[in-house]
Design a protein that fits this description.
The chain is mainly α. It has a domain at 35-114. The chain has helices at residues 35-53, 59-83, 86-114. Residues 1-21 are annotated as: Disordered. The chain crosses the membrane at residues 33-56, 62-81, 88-112. Keywords: Membrane, Transmembrane, Transmembrane helix.
Amino acid sequence: MTDPYDGARPRNPSGLFPAGAPARPTYREPHPIHGAAVVLGGGVATMWLLLFGLLGAGVRGYAWWTVLAGGLAWLVALLLVRHGDRGVATGVAIVVGGGWSIAAAVVANRWMASGDWPLW
């Protein structure tokens, strides 16, 4: 006696695992972002913010120089998004956001400690 499922007759697929279905279209990003570019942009932005932050003599100077440097870096990031490498722009934007957060925390800490708003 032979097994009826030994290949003598073809099985109908259940539909759970589509076999022979047409391939779905694959959409690819025309300008992909690479991790090395993000790290490069982040490193450059870190140095940029550090150099400008060191120009400030106190909390007020540090905060305003950081805001200015971050604004300039974001303008460059916008240009890079439009005409350059979006990975570098992403790294710049991430680091500038972090730098502004650190500056805000420093200002808030000084404000809480002294009771006087340090930016005016």
